[in-house]
């Protein structure tokens, strides 16, 4: 017997990892998985849409911020299971470095809040962060220092 999860495939989405003035832009998620957690703005890629177009669109929809997309920073799995271990969803998040162009963060679309956080606040352990947020932010900051 084939389970219903065997017919499903991971959903590919983008996240905007932006370092500006020693801070990174995060949103507090309104929807599962990770509802209530702080993470990078982003969302699903539409059919026929490039990574760059998707991250620019999703960033603007969630925060009102305009950015110039740069290179792919990393890709991470987000696998959500229920209490019994049954698969609810599987997303592959393509993390894209973005350079701030304009705008001030205002929560929109799927976000409860949107704001800049100093990088040291991400590693302090006081924020309820989605998995890999601090790691990706520090990776982007390191890349920016080496490239800029």
What does this structure look like?
The chain has 148 residues and is α+β, with helices and mostly antiparallel strands. It has a single domain (4-139), classed as Alpha-Beta Complex (Nucleoside Triphosphate Pyrophosphohydrolase), CATH 3.90.79.10. It is built from three helices and seven strands, in the order ββββαβββαα. The chain has helices at residues 51-63, 119-122, 133-147, and strands at 11-20, 23-29, 38-39, 42-44, 66-81, 87-102, 111-118. Strands 1, 2, 3, 4, 5, 6 and 7 form a seven-stranded mixed beta sheet that branches. Strand 5 and strand 6 (87-102) form a beta hairpin. The longest helix has 15 residues, at 133-147. The protein starts with 10 loop residues before the first strand and ends with a helix. The mean pLDDT is 91.
Key traits:
148 residues, Nucleoside Triphosphate Pyrophosphohydrolase, seven-stranded mixed β-sheet, 7 strands, globular
Give the second-level CATH assignment, the architecture: Alpha-Beta Complex
Identify the overall geometry: globular
Averaged pLDDT, please? 91
Number of domains: 1
Backbone structural class: alpha+beta
Point out poorly predicted stretches: none
Give me the CATH superfamily.
Nucleoside Triphosphate Pyrophosphohydrolase
Give the termini separation: 55 Å
In terms of DSSP E residues, the strand content is 35-45%
Quantity of strands, as a count: 7
